[in-house]
Design goal:
12 helices; 40% helix; 11% strand
Length: 294
């Protein structure tokens, strides 16, 4: 094989790995994990005893009557809010909960996350991705998980999805100085894979405390993972988007209106859905106007 052919083959193999999500090296020498798994002796772990706490009253659609479980329907835009329903008790990482509740400011919360070792994603990520924008904003945007660009910069929504988000917000008069942005996961999952349930559970107490400390007027939840986690819902984002919910957690003095919508990364794959997000953003702008009235 000529040198040129071997170089082309190597570049093609590298491009295939990048498309498959293997875009970051975490060791100098490759390791055969399948061989290690075959050699490792079988080990039976003792059953863990879950630690429960009462889950906050996090979500209620603004319907005219409580919804039946697993039977979602479209919200009635003319109806007022209903009493918040209580979801079943949820498993929560106890050390994460203790650290998060102890934070009395956003800076203290960031320092608590820097010291927290309960999420394995921290071991493979480059940076903690905490927040960006204006902490005093009336609008808090909560996305899903950082990507490669966000991991390098240590800020959420700075890649191509973030650029699209900026263009989406501009027509309703919002920008990075008038919104506050974070994610439900603070470290990048390797290969941009979906975070696991355990990883979400480890970060959730910090996300809840983050919202409490920022205390926005409105939440914009971008993507299914963000919406389903914070609203304690089982429907997909296609059913949730465009509907107003109430979000509430343990130490909040008032519930916060929350609007799920599609994630900008999804719009890059399916641009036809931009019209639906535009309707959501108009609803967000209208809600801000309503809340500003005495």
């Amino acid at each position: 094989m000529r040198d040129g052919d071997s170089t082309a083959a190597a570049l093609a193999a590298l491009a295939w790995q990048i498309e498959a999500g293997a875009d970051e090296a975490i060791d100098i020498v490759p390791a055969d994990r399948f061989a290690e798994a075959a050699e490792a002796p079988a080990r039976v772990e003792p059953a863990a005893v879950p630690q429960n706490r009462a889950a906050p009253n996090r979500a209620a659609p603004l319907d005219d009557e409580p919804q039946q479980v697993n039977r979602p329907r479209l919200a009635d835009a003319s109806a007022g809010p209903i009493p918040l329903r209580t979801p079943p008790p949820a498993l929560v990482d106890a050390p994460a909960h203790t650290l998060a509740r102890a934070a009395r400011s956003l800076e203290e919360l960031r320092e608590a996350l820097m010291a927290f070792d309960g999420c394995p994603l921290k071991d493979t990520a480059t940076n903690l991705v905490f927040a960006d924008g204006n902490p005093a904003s009336r609008v808090m945007i909560v996305g899903e998980a950082p990507g490669a660009d966000e991991d390098r910069a240590g800020k959420p929504f700075v890649g191509i999805s973030g650029q699209l988000l900026d263009r989406m917000l501009a027509p309703i008069g919002l920008d990075r100085t008038s919104v506050y942005i974070t994610n439900i996961i603070f470290w990048r999952p390797p290969g941009n894979r979906q975070p696991t349930t355990a990883e979400v559970a480890a970060c959730l107490p910090f996300v809840e405390r983050h919202i409490e400390l920022a205390n926005p007027d409105v939440l914009l939840l971008t993507g299914g993972a963000s919406a389903k986690t914070l609203l304690a819902r089982h429907e997909g984002i296609t059913r949730l988007r465009g509907r107003w919910f109430l979000y509430e957690s343990t130490d909040m003095s008032r519930p916060i209106p929350a609007l799920p919508t599609f994630h900008p990364a999804y719009l890059l794959r399916d641009p036809a859905q931009k019209r639906e997000v535009w309707r959501d953003l108009l609803a967000l702008s209208e809600k801000l106007g309503e809340l500003a009235q005495p």
